[in-house]
Structure to design on (187 residues):
């Protein structure tokens, strides 16, 4: 495979899943990815755990430079999702990463999808290693990147090349929840 790489399995994601079930208010606190016109993410919910500091953009109302160079910060959700920080750091060590970028959790309902798209902005180019760790999934949920399709299991970790067109389809009867870790590697 050229667009996906299996990194490992057996990651204990149940503590994260439990916290998500106990804190449904964490979903869609930041709706920009879902609500922007023509977004490929319109059928999903997400939680922003780490990304660019929104303060100055909220104050000015000008979001045009939000995806320009920045040092990501931990969002308030990270306090409740405290299992994610040590997991991210251990994955950085495993991948030989030099910088930790954005961290998101995405949820696609049964029958939902993320439409085909390519991630092409400063963040996706600088943080050139994107990992998926399914927290909850089903056998009828698949990820496509280029001409390759994979079905990921709960607790697996996959690298994928988000500079290539990709999409996710959840054709199962259960929602799919995935932790996305972005980091910089020198490769």
């Amino acid at each position: 495979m050229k667009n996906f790489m299996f990194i490992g399995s057996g990651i204990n994601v149940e503590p994260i899943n439990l916290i998500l079930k106990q804190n449904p208010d964490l979903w869609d606190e930041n709706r920009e990815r879902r609500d922007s016109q023509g977004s490929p993410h319109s059928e999903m919910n997400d939680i922003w755990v780490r990304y660019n500091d929104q303060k100055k953009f909220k104050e000015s109302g000008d979001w045009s430079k939000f995806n320009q160079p920045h040092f990501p910060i931990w969002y308030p959700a990270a306090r409740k999702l405290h299992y994610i920080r040590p997991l991210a750091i251990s994955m950085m060590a495993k991948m030989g990463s030099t910088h930790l970028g954005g961290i998101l959790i995405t949820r696609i309902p049964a029958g939902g999808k993320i439409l085909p798209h390519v991630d092409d902005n400063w963040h996706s180019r600088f943080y050139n290693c994107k990992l998926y760790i399914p927290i909850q999934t089903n056998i009828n949920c698949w990820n496509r990147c280029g001409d390759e399709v994979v079905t990921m299991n709960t607790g697996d970790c996959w690298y994928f090349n988000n500079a290539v067109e990709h999409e996710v389809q959840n054709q199962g009867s259960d929602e799919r929840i995935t932790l996305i870790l972005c980091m910089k590697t020198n490769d």
Observations:
- The chain has one domain: 4-184.
- DSSP finds six helices and eleven strands in the chain.
- The domain at 4-184 is CATH 2.60.120.330 (Jelly Rolls).
- The longest strand covers residues 99-108.
